[in-house]
Write a structure and sequence with these properties.
Elements (H helix, E strand, L loop, with lengths): L1 H34 L14 H34 L6
Length: 89
C-alpha cells in the first residue's frame, strides 16, 4: 500500500502540472466565449476595472479547482484499477 503512494506521488505531480496547463487553456476559451474578448484581465492591468479583474480571477480559480479535482480523482482511480489500492495523499 505504501509503495503505491510513493510511486503515485511523482506521477501525480506530473499529471497535476498537465492539469494546470489544461485549466489555463479551458479558462482562456471560456473567457473568450463569455466576454468576446481575447485577453482576460490581469490584476495589474491598469485599463481594466476591479469588477472585471476579480471576476476573471474567480472564474480562473473555479476552473482550476475543478480541473485539479478531476485530474486527481481520475489519477487515483487509475492507480486503483492498476494496483487494487487507492493511493494515500
Amino acid at each position: 500500500m505504501k509503495a503505491v503512494t510513493v510511486v503515485y506521488k511523482p506521477v501525480g505531480l506530473l499529471v497535476g502540472i498537465a492539469g494546470g496547463m489544461l485549466a489555463g487553456a479551458v479558462f482562456s476559451q471560456v473567457w473568450k466565449l463569455v466576454t468576446h474578448d481575447d485577453d482576460a484581465p490581469d490584476m495589474l492591468d491598469e485599463d481594466r476595472g476591479w469588477g472585471e479583474a476579480l471576476a476573471a480571477a474567480a472564474l480562473h480559480g473555479a476552473i482550476f479547482a475543478v480541473v485539479k479535482g478531476v485530474v486527481n480523482r481520475a489519477g487515483a482511480s487509475g492507480v486503483r484499477r492498476l494496483t487494487g489500492s487507492w493511493p494515500k495523499g
